[in-house]
């Protein structure tokens, strides 16, 4: 497609999204909720056509020899459909944050001043692989009063197109502006560059995907970006751990779904933990098919552990590979995580309150856990309904992003004729 034609398409999408976002500000929540529930019904009614589009994407992905984890994230299943429908119903049931008043005060001169939550405006979501992001992102943006522009990866183009088309139908049938949810209708990469220059119409960009995508968006964007960076997640098993908890947590954190960003990628074992306990955890992981890369101390424990390189401590494997390191207590674990981690999700297994408090306070990550699997770092598990993603930034949001994180605020000042002297 000629650049001039593509530019016109992107200009129209951004302009229409801005118009739609202003119309949404005056739409009753009942209509928004009706739209979300209508979309949940359409997922059932149109499931055959959506799956047909998904099979086309998967077949092309296999033909292109895309990595197994990417194909796994791309593939829709009955479980994925149920998850999308459940997310829509849960978001519809949540209280909308826009209009909420907070930080209220009354000044000596009688002025009443408070902050009011308002939508950010227009949000562009640029993402890879997971078609369910199309539904999750659209539902959260709609419920929080934002227009959304979706640009999924080329590997999921037909699936995303089918899902976005149904959401547009749900909007139109519920009396919402059709342009509140738009999908960039091309796989051309130039479209992303053009989108990232539309700072007059787009207020925020959220990239979700691999490190390369996120870095490219940050470098090219004229629009503020919230980064949903990689998940180099750790579990530290202390000398004070309950071993039954430790084994269950470590196995769940790695094996339950290894291709997602909150799966454990590095296991840290306290040097003071008995060798039998260390071996028990490692052998349980190996029994579940995990390939281990260890430091010298870990390699002495169990035969067959491969040598870990410096790169392994930074690695986000997204499969059944795991780095294992033996560290000298909680302070060394904290130092390792703050050096090699990605500020995503990290956990400690310990029965010591003092040790847990230190870990929770000093680990610099968006979610820090005590005696729980890193797999709980998720908007749904946090009671937020669907999530827009997991931010590893510190501004404007951190961790799983839900409805409130898709709003900003404005100051409201109510007077009765006051003038400043």
What does this structure look like?
- With 421 residues, this protein is α/β, with parallel strands linked by helices.
- The protein folds into 2 domains: 3-229, Aldehyde Dehydrogenase, Chain A, domain 1; 233-376, 3-Layer(aba) Sandwich (Aldehyde Dehydrogenase, Chain A, domain 2), CATH 3.40.309.
- Helices cover 43% and strands 19% of the residues.
- It has 15 helices and 16 strands.
- It has helices spanning 3-24, 29-45, 47-63, 68-74, 78-93, 132-143, 157-173, 190-195, 211-220, 243-255, 275-287, 296-299, 310-314, 329-340, 353-362, and strands spanning 101-106, 112-119, 122-127, 147-151, 181-183, 204-208, 233-237, 264-270, 291-294, 306-307, 321-327, 345-349, 367-370, 389-391, 399-401, 407-414.
- Strands 10-9-11-8-7-12-13 form a 7-stranded parallel β-sheet, sandwiched between helices. A 4-stranded parallel β-sheet has the order 5-4-3-6, sandwiched between helices.
- Helix 12 links the parallel strand 9 and strand 10 (306-307).
- Helix 2 runs antiparallel to helix 5 and helix 3 (47-63) runs antiparallel to helix 7.
- The longest helix has 22 residues, at 3-24.
- It is globular, with a radius of gyration of 24 Å.
- The termini are far apart.
- The mean pLDDT is 96.
């Amino acid at each position: 497609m000629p650049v001039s034609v593509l530019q016109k398409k992107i200009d129209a999408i951004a302009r229409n999204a801005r118009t739609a976002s202003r119309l949404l500000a005056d739409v009753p929540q009942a209509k928004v909720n009706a739209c979300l529930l209508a979309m949940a019904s359409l997922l059932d009614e149109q499931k055959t056509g959506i799956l047909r589009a998904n099979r086309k994407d998967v077949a092309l992905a296999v033909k292109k020899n895309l990595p197994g984890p990417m194909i796994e994230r791309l593939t829709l299943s009955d479980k994925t459909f149920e998850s999308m429908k459940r997310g829509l119903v849960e978001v519809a049931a949540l209280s909308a944050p826009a209009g909420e008043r907070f930080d209220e005060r009354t000044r000596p001169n009688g002025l009443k001043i408070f902050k009011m939550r308002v939508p950010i405006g227009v949000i562009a979501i640029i993402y890879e692989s997971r078609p369910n992001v199309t539904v999750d992102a659209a539902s959260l943006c709609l419920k929080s009063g934002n227009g959304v522009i979706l640009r999924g990866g080329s590997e999921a183009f037909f699936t995303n197109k089918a899902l976005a088309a149904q959401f547009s139908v749900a909007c139109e049938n519920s009396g919402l502006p059709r342009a509140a949810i738009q999908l960039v209708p091309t796989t051309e990469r130039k479209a992303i560059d053009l989108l990232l220059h539309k700072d007059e119409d787009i207020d925020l960009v959220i990239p979700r995907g691999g490190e390369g995508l996120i870095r490219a968006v940050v470098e090219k964007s004229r629009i503020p970006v919230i980064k949903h960076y990689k998940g180099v997640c750790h579990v530290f098993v202390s000398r004070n751990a309950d071993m039954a908890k430790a084994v269950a947590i470590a196995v769940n954190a790695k094996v339950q779904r290894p291709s997602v960003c909150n799966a454990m990628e590095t296991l840290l074992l306290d040097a003071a933990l008995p060798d039998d306990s260390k071996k028990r955890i490692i052998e349980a992981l190996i029994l579940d098919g995990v390939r281990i890369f260890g430091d010298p101390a870990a390699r002495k424990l169990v035969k067959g552990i491969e040598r870990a390189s410096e790169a392994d401590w930074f690695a986000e494997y997204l499969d059944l590979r795991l780095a294992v390191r033996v560290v000298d207590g909680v302070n060394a674990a904290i130092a390792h995580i703050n050096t090699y981690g990605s500020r995503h999700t990290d956990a400690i297994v310990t029965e010591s309150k003092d040790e847990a408090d230190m870990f929770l306070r000093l680990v610099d990550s968006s979610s820090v856990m005590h005696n729980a699997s890193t797999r709980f770092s998720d908007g749904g598990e946090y009671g937020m309904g669907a999530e827009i993603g997991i931010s590893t930034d510190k501004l404007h949001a951190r961790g799983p992003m839900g409805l409130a994180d898709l709003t900003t605020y404005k100051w409201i000042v109510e007077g009765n004729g006051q003038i400043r002297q």
